[in-house]
Amino acid sequence: MSSREPVLDPVPIKSLRPTQITVGYREVEEKRREWRQRANDHGDKKLGAYLGRHMIPVVRGPKDEAYVIDHHHLCRALLDEGVKDISVNVVLDLSTLKSPEFWTYMDNRALCHPYDAAGQRLGFKAIPARIADLEDDPYRSLAGELRRAGGFAKDTTPFSEFIWADFLRRRVKRKLVEEDFGSALTRALKLAKAEGAGHLPGWCGPSLAS
User: Fold this and answer.
1) Angle at 29 between CA 27 and CA 34, to 5 degrees
2) For 39-71, how does the pLDDT look when each residue is reduced to its tens digit (9 = 90+)?
3) Alpha carbon of 205 to those of 148, 154, 171, 182, 200: distances in Å?
4) Domains along the sequence of the chain with CATH
5) What is the pLDDT of residues 163-180, one digit of tens each?
């Protein structure tokens, strides 16, 4: 069930199934920028090596479809950049399960995240069937930038950046995130160092100023 079967023959990105409803479009754009920069600096050979080091972990589900359980942002960025295929790593085979049983199992193992851009939990049918249909959650972008700025540490907790996104969603106005991302990040950094964030994964502790 967990044999980790790398698929050396690349599969079409458009065939991959998401296990969440949203991504941060700003995060996607940053990965697209990184991809273009890598292409300019290193060429196609290096790009192939990069993709070889970033196999997408998937669960094989009903109808033998591949369900992405990490790197949704990278998949979307590569798709938007016109990359057609990518290698995957099958970490779990649930292909014998029917859809309701499959999603229950995935949910119980924290392998899916059926929450919308307002942080509301929806039914599993709300999870889009295609990477191209993932919706934007600006707070997921804010959480990602917050981590890169040192606001919290990378953590193994499933969907840890979405947990931070929901924390920020309740404390930073959406208008600020959308219209003045820099100020939103400054606000987020202050919130991240306060003791009120101490329960969150990867919390780095209060700053000396607090």
Assistant:
1) 95
2) 887 777 677 777 777 789 999 999 999 999 999
3) 16, 14, 18, 22, 10
4) 5-136 (3.90.1530.10), 138-197 (1.10.8.10)
5) 999 999 999 999 999 999
